[in-house]
Amino acid sequence: MDHGGDEEAAPNSKRAKLAVTSGCGGSEDHLSALPDDVLIHILLKLRDTAFAARTSILSSRWRRMWTLLPEIHFSEATDPRRIRPALVANEAPAILHLAAVAQDASPYSVAAWLQTVAPRLSGDLIFRNVIHRRRGGAYEEERGSFELPCFQNATSIRLGLGFLGLTMPASGVFSRLVDLSLDHVWIYSPDRLADVISSRRCPALKKLTIRDARCMGNVAIHSASLRQMELRNLKGFSRLTIHSESLLQMELSDLRNHQQLTVTAPSLEELTLSSCLLGAHDLSLLVSSISAPQLLVLKWKKNTWHPKYFELGEMMHLHCLDIDVFLQYGSDDFMDDTDFLMDDIGFLMDDTIMYNTDSLMLLQRFKVIHKLNLRVDYLPEACPSDCPCGQPPNWKSEELMLDCLQKAEISNLRGTEHELAFMERLFSWATVLKQMTVSFDESITESRDIKEFCQKLLSFSRPEVCMGFFVYRHSEKILYVPVD
């Protein structure tokens, strides 16, 4: 039987469902007959303004439909010169969302389209500038600067500028801005930045994120609306002052070359401090003062602590202390960031400063904690004779009273004698401990030595303490039971 005719009839019958023959012998385009708001909804599903513009070829009904979209997306790396014409052509009452990725955008091209969209944006702005590093050129090299216009009605601004220079506007109020994120940026006129994110000019700001930023000068942040703040990998901020009555969560990481850090946050509940002494050329001038009387969780990452450099106010409500690192030595297999740790120790080598001693001083400082998270890191075996890690292990004879500690999580263990000695001391310090979780480093496999290590820890424990051991098997963390 010949089915050729049926095969040709099938697509024709499908087309017949999309078109109804009129009395004049023409056909009606059902899709184009839909209301504007339905067609706009269909085009928004594309999430690509360039694709939406191509629908203009379908019929005269579609010709200008893409210009009515309240959302503009340039989802692939785009020639930045194409962004402004699309904004000029847009006829929507307001732009609710603008997301663009550009390649090697110049300050001039970015400033041009930002000026165009600023008065009309009533929602989110996301922009990322992808930089192709030139041969012999530094990734962080300055590429010129531009001034950000005032976005009075924007609710979120996220800019990844590829280390373009940015100057904040001298006037105007970001009255609806809730979320501000600046990434890979040279900050010009830091006093303007501080002014813009103040309560006077950003009265609704809840979240502030600044990552990989370069600046020469002092920054003072005063806000009565902020709830969350992250400052990561900042260079050149000589003096950083943060004062916020409303701030609840803050992370300060990789603060380089600063000399003064002052934080006043009466409502702060969670604080992460990581590598906050990097590049300090003169520790005698370094002052870090933190006042957070309502703090519940303190995450202390890759910092040394000593009252000479860190002034911590009363934190009577502190519940959880998360420490990274407590250094071990004599290991022939150590962490990838050993060079980083040794560089940091080089800055801090002093008769009174050692990582382990500092960690214990921090424990002594917060004796009322209920939960302790502690990560062990390693130094190479071949240390100089005067290296801090090889000095008398005072912690073996240290007497601490952690009589509120109920839960402890110790991670990255490798089953060394030093770890065993520390764990024995920890059990003696924590007299009301109820739960202990021990996780081994990913390089450690289940073996007789690890089983004996766990059994010794169990012998230090008390009947009321619930002990749990975890190892990694094929990169998956699993429960380990040390039984014969």
How is this fold's topology laid out?
Blueprint: H1 4-18, E1 19-21, E2 27-29, H2 36-44, H3 49-54, E3 71-78, H4 83-89, E4 95-103, H5 107-117, E5 121-130, E6 145-147, E7 156-167, E8 179-188, H6 190-196, E9 207-223, E10 228-244, E11 249-256, E12 260-264, E13 270-274, E14 287-291, E15 297-301, E16 310-312, E17 320-331, H7 338-348, H8 355-365, E18 371-380, E19 407-413, H9 417-429, E20 435-440, H10 448-460, E21 466-473, E22 476-480
Parallel strand pairs: 3-4, 4-5, 5-7, 6-7, 7-8, 8-9, 9-10, 10-11, 10-12, 11-13, 12-14, 13-15, 14-16, 15-17, 17-18, 18-19, 19-20, 20-21
Antiparallel strand pairs: 1-2, 21-22
Helix pairs in contact: 4-5, 9-10
Which structural class do the helices and strands define? alpha/beta
Low-confidence stretches: 1-26, 329-354, 389-393
Largest sheet: 20 strands, mixed
Q: Please tally the β strands and state the result.
A: 22
In DSSP terms (H or I, runs of 4 or more residues), the helix count works out at 10
Helical residue percent band = 10-25%
Report strand %.
Answer: 35-45%
Gross morphology: elongated
Radius of gyration: 30 Å
What's the rounded overall pLDDT mean?
79
End-to-end span in angstroms?
A: 75 Å
